[in-house]
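Records of this kind hold a single protein each, on a pair of labelled lines. Below, a sample record shows both lines together.
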Amino acid sequence: MKSSQSFLAMALAVAGLVLGASIAPARADETCNSPYMANLIKGQEDYVHVWTLGVKGIGDGSDKLVTVDVNPASPKYGKVINALSVGGRGEAHHMGFTDDRRFLWAGRLDDSKIFIFDIATNPAKPKLVRTISDLPRKTGFVGPHTFYAMPGRMLVQALSNTKNHGGVTGLVLYTNKGNFVAKYPMPTTEVGGVKGDGYGYDIGINPAKNVMLTSSFTGWNNYMMDMGKLIKDAEAMKRFGNTMVVWDVKSMKPQKVLSVPGSPLEIRWSLKDGDNWAITASALTSTLTLIRQDDKGEWHAKQVATIGDPAKIPLPVDISITADAKGLWVNTFMDGTLRYFDISNLEQPQETFTKVVGSQNNMVSQSWDGKRVYVTSSLLANWDKKGADNQQYLALYHWDGKDLAEQWRIDFYKEKLGRAHHMKFGAKAVKTAETPQGGKLALE
């Protein structure tokens, strides 16, 4: 463990020297990508890759990576151009690019398999090059959720464990090619005055501050349970995370546990040069929380806004920060609403726009220029709505700063694909050049 931590510290230090002390973001691509990604899309994205849950009786019933042509100049604009099935159904969930953008990692929350796709050779037709099936055996963790690029490495946040399928879990570090490096348990003791609950969910790193934030959700027993049954189970509803953790990135050690009630999910750092704050949304309390330093350098979490009517539990499930850090998109699953917050005043964000985009919605991704906003529908197989309300789609909207205009919508059930969950942008002209370390780490 110590050797892997030393190696990671060295790699991060080299990355800092190469990319610049402040790690200024490239002006392109989605706003949620890791700052260690060397090559981001500039201008119009050509493809959107959608990690899709298989449904028995629909198409081949398998989880799959679906590729959609999203370039308006293409004759196939708004059409599915490829669907790569990976076999079986294991609760396909999130994805993430490696720092050199050559590979796209995707995970399943039920069987804990991780799939590595070659996204560089032919972005229009990804190729499955490796499947990792031994995460539980090697780490004691299950439910690989977040895939976060680091220099020559992929950091994976798990959601659960093999012992009791509860929420106590950890982080796992791999090489870009999928070789296991190290594991780091989430804190369950008091760190900085607050006791850790051991839960995990998302990852967000600020290299300039050598700070990583992690958030918290729930374990396998809950996320694989039918939502109707879960809501009625008072004990199960107590088993959700209520913390975020501040980590030292180079040592990979927790420095402080923050109290953030209601299961804080996605973490979004401000992308403006010189800014050192992040924001998250708590699903169960329907609130926005600001995380930043005080004058003494201590990190604190402060609730700054509510999302819709918390009493109705709209269930905010994804957020997307604008590149100028003045706006925030929030998807609320239960009412199928996409909301826009003016966050120019961090202490008092204002909800300035709302639009119902479907009976349910989940992920939201915007282009760097903020003009294109993509939405998908599926949350979890057993949490999605039933009957006619179980809409499954990928939709594109254009945003002019005042209103959203739908450009097209793909019905994933009609196309016999399944449930549309996470998405990542792709482009024909993206250079998958060497990593900030000259490619040496990625080749290990």
Q: What stands out?
A: The mean pLDDT is 92. Residues 62 and 87 are 5 Å apart (CA to CA). Residues 2-426 form a domain with the Methylamine Dehydrogenase; Chain H fold (CATH 2.130.10.10).
